[in-house]
């Protein structure tokens, strides 16, 4: 069974750095794009960008370009989302998912990682 | 960026009602659209892909239609487990964009 398992909830202070993870299993992780989605408290879904683990090619939404960094480690089938200096407005649930453009039975999401940024 | 305008933003309906949600794209996206359902505290779940194809395991009361710029999600007979928030998502062009969501509530 295809699975995406995300790292646990984080509580951070403004200005701190953070890296959250998304580990895939039971499919060819390296050759499937991974998408990241933000959901701020009580708000809708926002597509942040996507990464191709085989060569770390990335596509960022302009809204998130320069605000976060996506990376991947093929050896452990894991994608990462990273902040160098968190803001209170980064408080949200972050989901990874296998690329939304894939058709058929493709509907695989991580369970979400809650990031809380508060002084 | 392609803007996805979803309407209504919320609706109240009764069990058994027929419900229709619409997404309009700011430019043509062929049929590169999916519909997602999200319940509180859960990750979204895809109901429809390629605008009108039913995701495996999704009840047949859900259907999608449209192409180009106008898309519709229809629930033919609303069930108690269908009260949730629904989103469309276009994947025709980067950046992918979600609609604003439609919250379906119990009347």
From TrEMBL, chain B:
A Gene Ontology term for the protein's cellular component: plasma membrane
Pfam families with a match to the protein in the record: V-set
Subcellular location: Cell membrane; Secreted
Entry keyword Mitochondrion: no
One BP annotation, GO: adaptive immune response
Coiled coil: none
PROSITE patterns: IG_LIKE (PS50835)
Keyword vocabulary terms for this entry: Adaptive immunity, Cell membrane, Immunity, Immunoglobulin, Immunoglobulin domain, Membrane, Secreted
Protein name as catalogued: IGL c2228_light_IGKV1-17_IGKJ4
Classification of source organism: Eukaryota, Metazoa, Chordata, Craniata, Vertebrata
